[in-house]
Amino acid sequence: MNLEKVLFSFFMILALTLNFGFFIGAVDNPDHHNVYELYAVIIVNLIATVMKFGDRSQLGAMLLATSLVAVVQLLSAALVWTVAVHIQETGLTPSVMATIVSLSGGAMLANIISVILLMIEAAMLRH
Amino acid sequence: MNLVTSMILRRMRKPFIILITVYSISILGLSLIPGVDDQGNPWKMSFFHAFYYVSFTATTIGFGEIPYALNDAQRLWVISTIYFTVISWLYAIGKILTLVQDETFREAVTRTRFKKSVNNLHEPFYLICGLGETGHEVVSALTEEHYRAVVIEKNKNNMNELKLNELREYVPCITADASDPAQLELAGIKHRLCKGVIAVTSDDQTNLKIAITSKLLHPNIKVACRSELKDYEENMLSFDTDHVVNPYETFAETFAMLIHSPSLHLIFDWLTGAPNTRLTEPLYFRYGHWILCSYGRFGKQLYEKLIEHDIKTTVIEPDPDVVKEFKQQYAEQADDIILGTGIDAKTLNKANVKDSAGIIAGSDNDSNNLSIIMTARAINSDLFVVARQNIYTNSDLYTATKSNLIMRPREIIARMFRALFLNPLLVDYLELALKESEKDIEWPNIVISRLSAVLGEMKPHIWTVNINKEQAPAIMKGLEFGRNINLGHLTQDPASRTRKLHCVPLLYCKANEKISMPEDDTKVEAGDTIMFCGTREVMKSMFWTLKVMSSLNYVMTFKNEPESYVWRLLHRHFFRVERRKTRRRKHS
């Protein structure tokens, strides 16, 4: 058992599950989407990304790329949230919420790909 | 991803994760602890404000309690936030600093930088292996002519970057073992613009390996090697190494020139010497009885030349085996060898130093050579002294002995490489000079007098002109129009009708003949190659004639013709009559 692999898989899958938790619910209803969940997804995704830094294998590079995509999507979701609440002070209108959730949905797609890649790697290892 | 970034990223993994964790806990805490705003209403910091707050406290900027004053619960949390975030920042910065000082990391950085600068070369370049005195001499000669060079050197101490920075062109260099093909590849041996490899390391074995590698990896490249041992030289030549320079052999040849004619030796010295050094005075060989100390690889070469010219020579050799070998080889001169080192007056007297014309101190030990010179001079102060210098740092000592001729291997190799790579025709010229002077002993004297007439006090600059579209576009155009251009036009000063350029055409190569010192009326044709000798300024003036049509017109007609379109039209209109006349004259 490789601790690095365990940790990385843990963070990767946790990122996906949290992301799913945030994403699920009516797309334009702020009550269905918790800000702390979004925060947790961002942090977990950041850690998963940093863990793939400097990995020179082909699969490592792919995983870094998918995590980066997820991070970019989630950060833009957070940015939309901040702009809506603090800068323009429109509050979480349905359209704003829909934007945030759909951005996080994109991030979830990237996270799903990461997990699939992770599974492929595990399958390859067994042979 | 290149090695350097991946190294940084891999090392920074842990610090980054610690930073992210500490930040996330701090932000989360701040956003959870209830506080009050300026009106006393309950208020919680949003993630946005919490991130802002942690960012400026973690970096010790400290804007204060923004947006509202904190309560004590928040302050308690902020205390721990400050300590943990600052410590994790310090840890991250410390990691970067240790990485930067890391030996392997630095090497990775220099290698990456080197690789990049080699790949970015967009002009032809030469790869020089070994940056000893010879290597440095060759590099500066090449860069002086604006050729690019790449240097690979094994010994870190020789890699004087400051010295390399003084050169005219940026020279990428790397500390690596040149006998390793991977390193040569890194240095761009396979690069399509690599025009030649110059192997001048002090080790024959390494030079041989470099030559083989170059010929295998980039077959049509020009390879030149330094070699001091006959076996290696033959080995190198066996697989088409273009040039092998053996300093002892080359010196023996110049020594033969000196015996033959002082002027011939002077021609060699002037033409192959480094430009911008002072012209040397002629040396006059002294005929008579000679003494040769030490019959090694240097002594053997010189002895052959001496007996070729019927000069009676006594050899002093410390090794009894070599003495025996000599006696077998030269049965007739068996009495001409004495066992001894030559550093004591006794053996020197035995060799009759008192009535000798010259002495050669040719051992591979500098202390012995210096001692031989001092002892011999004490007995006979009129001796012509030839000294062999082995170690570069002893230069000053040898100069202080005021020997007539000092053999410095590095200098000789640098001379030959300068000629081979900058003006390959010079080698042909020197061969031709040797032949000419054998036919006519006065020939070198005539050359020297012509050279002295145009040269100042400095050694000449030598350049080769190829009559082709790239180097001489104006001439090519003129030839296409059917104009008669001859050598005199090229040596005419394009700035003044009364002055000739201060240069001497040394060699004129036509399709199948080589003319030394061609006359001014030699007809210039496409594809010809001409080697000139003069100063750098003169070369630049000549390039005007070669490249600019109006300059060429001026040296041919001594008229300033207009260049702009309108003036040309007017000119054509007014001078139509005259033009017709000249054309008729040409046809008749």
Mean pLDDT rating of chain B: 86
Largest interface: A-B, 17 and 21 residues
By oligomeric state, this entry counts as heterodimer
Distance between the termini of chain B: 74 Å
Strand order of the largest sheet of chain B: 5-4-3-6-7-8
Strand-pairing-aware structural class of chain A: mainly alpha
How many E strands of chain A? Answer: 0
CATH class of the largest domain in chain B: Alpha Beta
Backbone shape of chain A: elongated
Q: For the report, how would you describe the main beta sheet of chain A?
A: none
Return the CATH architecture of the largest domain in chain B.
Answer: 3-Layer(aba) Sandwich
Distance between the termini of chain A: 16 Å
**Share of residues in helices of chain A:** over 70%
Low-confidence stretches of chain A: none
Evaluate the radius of gyration of chain B: 36 Å
What is the radius of gyration of chain A?
16 Å
Q: Helix content range of the residues of chain B, please?
A: 40-55%
Helical element count of chain A?
4
Describe the protein in words.
Chain A has 127 residues and is mainly α. Chain A has one domain (3-126). Chain A contains 4 helices and no strands. Chain A is elongated. The two termini of chain A are 16 Å apart. The relative contact order of chain A is 0.17. Chain B is of the alpha/beta class and 588 residues long. Chain B has 4 domains: 3-101, Helix Hairpins (Orthogonal Bundle), CATH 1.10.287; 123-245, 3-Layer(aba) Sandwich (Rossmann fold), CATH 3.40.50; 253-430, 3-Layer(aba) Sandwich (Rossmann fold); 460-557, Regulator of K+ conductance, C-terminal domain (Alpha-Beta Plaits, 2-Layer Sandwich). In chain B, 52% of the residues lie in helices and 13% in strands. Chain B has a 6-stranded parallel sheet, with helices on both faces. In chain B, strand 1 and strand 2 form a beta hairpin. In chain B, helix 11 (262-272) packs across helix 19. Chain B starts with a helix and ends with a helix. The model of chain B has no long low-confidence stretch (mean pLDDT 86). Classes of the chains: A mainly alpha (127), B alpha/beta (588). Chains A and B meet through helix 2 and helix 3 of A and helix 1 and helix 2 of B.
